[in-house]
Amino acid sequence: MKYCNLKNALIIASSVFSAANAGGFFPKKTVKYYEKPAQSSAAVSSAVATPLNITQISLDALKRDYPNMEFKIGNVLRNDEAKTAYVHVSQAVNGYEIINSAANINIDIPSRSIISSGIAVWEDVEPFNPADHGLEDLNLDVEDALAKVAEYFNYPYDKDETEFTEKNGIYTIDGVKFTIDKKARAEKKYITISEKYVDSVWELSLEVGQIWYLARVSSTTGGLLNVENIASHAVYNAIPWNKVDITGGRMLFVDPYDKNASPLGWHKTDEKTTSNDTSGNNIIVQENHQGSEIDMVTNRAYGGADLIFDYPLDLNSKKVESYFGAAATNVFVLTNKLHDVYYKFGFNEQFGNFQVNNFGKGGAGNDPVKVLIQDRSGTNNANFATPVDGYSPKMRLYPFTSKSPERDSSFVNQIIIHEYSHGVTQRLTGGPDKTSCLSSDESNALSEGWSDFFAIAMELTKSSKRSDAHNMFEWLYGTYARSKPICSDMTINNLTYSSLTYNANGQLECHEGGEVWVNALNEVLWNFIELRGVSEDVSKGNINSKSEGNVLAIQLVIDAVKIQPCNPSFLEARDALVLAQKQRFNDSKLHCAIWKGFAKRGMGVNAQPPEETGSKIVYTDNFDLPSECK
Ligand SMILES: [Zn+2]
């Protein structure tokens, strides 16, 4: 569903749309300084202005300028030495504060006159009514709202175990499993979601591990509208890492890094150095709007001191540049996540992964991946270049001008997984200090196949089926990125070993060759899934022989890439996978699942390397299984 009419309804996910980050989304402020009035001695001696009077003076002043507006008094403070009273006021709706509004009025105590004010309020806003937008009003109570937060952040929560008490509009919830003190505090407020609407929210104050934040959940739609860090932790508005592309919308993520893979998080390169933009130990994301061919420092998205990367996104904009912040944030989150996921599967410091600081764990440092997004040096494509360990690889993501309005590959996680994976297989084949071990015709094709395979295996869901047809990068290319969808159904995709052909230049086209390879791996993947089921998020859980099919497939392909020779052929890469399984699990079912997958696609146990017949190079299918699998 889309809420194009709401200026700041930024998230297109079905139930979630976002208020912009709390720090940056305030109305225009009107500041006034008044001449301090002359003070008569009589006035000074009768300076007994009570907080009530001060409050009334402030409200009267506000009512003069904004007669139809409702206000709620916050703090009333006074300092008699400074002869000043300080009144803090919020705009209100139905008696509840609008979070992103503020007025402060300073009063000279002796004369009771206003000396200055700063007013940031919303004129002409009205409460958001879900029914006007075809939505149901969920009318969440405070415990429902907490359940929503638990759901968004994947925390364990059981409503039956909680109990709430209310005092002066502040709710305390006891029995909350996931907070440090087993409590949550909540208050009903309003937040502006566009220049026209305010939405009612439950503001929950939660201390979870080292994170202490305010989460604002819409009581009408259930959407997580806004998260504010009280402690300094990073918040990102990004596509869930394992979703194919932007079509399912974005969500807010708080500190999504893996402690084992990124011990200092994603912004620190050592204890003393923190970035507050889209750069850190694993990744540097910046724009290349000038289309420069040479390396230069350009803009990155900025998260401020609180590291809040919550940027607006309007995909209807003519030019991708207009939503650079949102694009950089998504790429930063996903590529860091891939760093952490591949770490778990064994692409770590020793094996040449991409980090500034290797924390003394081996390998060469100083090689975070540099990602140039919205790169105007090209169009309608993406690529990844990998030098030896110790030198930064470079990923380039070009705008897709073949679409109107143009589309940004920064919002297609599938293509970013594909590109990043090129770097992984490149560093792992032949060791991290070799760059030319995937340069033969067949190994180049293998590289394309692995990259598609990893993207598919990481993006499966519980409802994925063997017969699913994967149109790679569909949001960018339509159905034309590959010659056929990747699919286990031979009527949809009949590519086999014998489909490998050399073109007129005597070259095996790497993407066409890659299609043969990924379809074979897809068979193995589904044979595994039929044995062990599917994981919707392969970054979670430990890996062992009981893991889900896609987890096992990713692990064994990584293991195989590590043991295969430099410039492997298709059959050598297949044999490496068989061997990797024996090394790690030595499970007869998995063993035969691998052989059945390859045999189906013409790379059975008796398949041979290609033969040169005259001027032609010919691959011949073989569908034989080893005797133990018959
Ligand atoms: Zn590729």
Fold and architecture overview:
This protein has 630 residues and is α+β, with helices and mostly antiparallel strands. It has four domains: 30-121, Roll (Nuclear Transport Factor 2, Chain: A), CATH 3.10.450; 141-231, no CATH class; 238-424, Elastase, domain 1 (Roll), CATH 3.10.170.10; 436-630, Neutral Protease, domain 2. 25% of the residues lie in helices and 21% in strands. The protein has eleven helices and 26 strands. The protein has helices at 41-45, 51-65, 142-153, 324-344, 413-428, 441-458, 474-477, 510-532, 549-563, 570-584, 588-600, and strands at residues 30-33, 70-79, 84-93, 96-97, 102-108, 113-120, 126-127, 163-167, 170-174, 183-192, 197-208, 211-218, 224-229, 235-238, 251-254, 268-270, 273-274, 283-287, 308-309, 369-373, 382-385, 394-397, 399-400, 407-408, 611-613, 616-618. Strands 7, 8, 9, 10, 11, 12 and 13 form a seven-stranded mixed beta sheet that branches. Helix 6 runs antiparallel to helix 9 and helix 8 (510-532) packs antiparallel against helix 11. The protein is elongated. It starts with 29 loop residues before the first strand and ends in a 12-residue tail after the last strand. The model is unreliable at 1-24 and 37-49 (pLDDT under 50). Zinc ion is lined by residues 418, 422, 448, 451.
